[in-house]
């Protein structure tokens, strides 16, 4: 299998002085150095960059080479799979390692979203849905998940309290994450009640139910597990799962996130563990309703009982399965192409005891779920410290 031996992460947020190029080159240099390598040691580069109109520079793979002239002529590819773009890049890098095609792979994820005008942001994000059905959805992608939330409420009852607790948990966790865009403990009451600062955005979803528009980048360096044993630190992949579902929501039961369930099954099976064996999970809370349904899809609770996991404290940082100790997309931010790489970098930090204030005590096994579209692209990684 493969292992992560170095990583880098910019703060997420409104980074007006940065560009896609400066973000990419910054983390590329830092991750290579963190792995104890030089640019010439890298055999392959994979860049995760969604774009979809956020950057005028749309051909971005070779921007990574700007980090160091010694990266010139390295095989470099940009990959994209909506909001799971970062994990798509990571999994692609792992495949090259497993195939023996590369000894060291640099994986970078990046997005710059905040320089785009508001209406265009909504239009760009909506490109990750099935336009013949969802293209006219008010409030863009938030509207898509607002519809999902409304359907869930209709089937399983009002979940406003559970969603508020999810939002409050993630904001509380994000306070201690130095990379997080919003480091403020908002509390359950603020997240639960509609107000001028927390208006309804789409359906039953309020502003505190929606992830942030962000700029940022993250990078990791991959190698094989044998080589990783001689690195100063190493976090190995125990299991991987990728399940791609139909794009139209009309072709599936959107309240089940079946692709998420399948990806978790594959990764846990490969790792030969169960969900209960994990020390923590970083999951894709693009909207709080997504995290709620993901509790069910990953097998933590039965269908329709997602609220139990949060209301009974299971997913709190000190609960039986901490979910999003980083603050998640909700507090950390969600620069589309960077998110999946960020999840892997932060999980590596957790498992090597380098996570600072967001550290989960005694973390031994980490799970990652990164999702593109409304449960369309589904990626799971199970990670364990190698050394």
From TrEMBL:
Residues covered by the Thiolase C-terminal domain: 249-384
InterPro entries membership: Thiolase (IPR002155), Thiolase-like (IPR016039), Thiolase_C_2 (IPR055140), Thiolase_N (IPR020616)
Ranges of residues in domain Thiolase N-terminal: 3-223
Domain of life: Bacteria
CDD domains assigned to the protein according to its UniProt record, in alphabetical order: SCP-x_thiolase
PANTHER family, A to Z: ACETYL-COA C-ACETYLTRANSFERASE (PTHR42870), ACETYL-COA C-ACYLTRANSFERASE (PTHR42870:SF6)
Protein name as annotated: Acetyl-CoA acetyltransferase
Lineage of producing organism: Bacteria, Pseudomonadati, Pseudomonadota, Alphaproteobacteria, Hyphomicrobiales
């Amino acid at each position: 299998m493969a292992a992560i031996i170095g990583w880098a992460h910019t703060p997420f947020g409104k980074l007006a002085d940065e560009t896609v190029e400066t973000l990419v080159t910054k983390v590329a240099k830092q991750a290579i150095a963190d792995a104890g390598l030089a640019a010439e040691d890298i055999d392959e580069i994979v860049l995760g960059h969604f774009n979809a109109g956020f950057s005028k520079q749309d051909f971005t793979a070779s921007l990574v080479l700007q980090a160091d002239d010694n990266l010139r002529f390295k095989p470099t590819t940009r990959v994209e799979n909506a909001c799971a773009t970062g994990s798509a890049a990571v999994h692609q890098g792992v495949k090259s390692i497993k195939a023996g095609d590369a000894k060291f792979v640099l994986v970078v994820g990046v997005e710059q979203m905040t320089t785009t005008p508001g209406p265009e942001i909504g239009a760009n994000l909506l490109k990750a849905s099935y336009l013949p059905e969802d293209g006219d959805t008010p409030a863009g992608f938030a509207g898509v998940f607002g519809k999902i939330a409304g359907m869930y409420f209709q089937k399983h009852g009002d979940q406003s309290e559970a969603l508020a607790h999810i939002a409050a948990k993630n904001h509380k966790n994000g306070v201690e994450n130095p990379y997080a865009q919003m480091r403020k403990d908002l509390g359950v009451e603020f997240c639960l009640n509609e107000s001028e600062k927390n208006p309804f955005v789409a359906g039953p979803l309020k502003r505190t139910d929606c992830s942030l528009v962000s700029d940022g980048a993250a990078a990791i360096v991959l190698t094989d597990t044998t080589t990783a044993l001689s690195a100063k630190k190493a976090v190995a992949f125990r299991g991987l799962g990728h399940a791609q579902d139909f794009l139209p929501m009309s072709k599936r039961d959107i309240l089940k996130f079946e692709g998420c369930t399948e990806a978790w099954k594959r990764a846990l099976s490969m790792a030969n563990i169960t969900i209960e064996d994990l020390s923590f999970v970083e999951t894709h809370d693009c909207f709080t309703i997504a995290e709620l349904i993901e509790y069910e899809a990953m097998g933590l609770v039965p269908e329709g009982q997602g609220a139990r996991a949060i209301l009974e404290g299971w997913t709190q940082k000190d609960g039986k399965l901490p979910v999003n100790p980083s603050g998640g997309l909700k507090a950390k931010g969600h620069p589309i192409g960077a998110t999946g790489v960020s999840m892997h970098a932060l999980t590596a930090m957790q498992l090597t005891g380098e996570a600072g204030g967001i550290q989960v005590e005694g973390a031994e096994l980490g799970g990652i779920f990164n999702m593109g579209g409304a449960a369309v692209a589904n990626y799971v990684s199970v990670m364990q410290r190698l050394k």
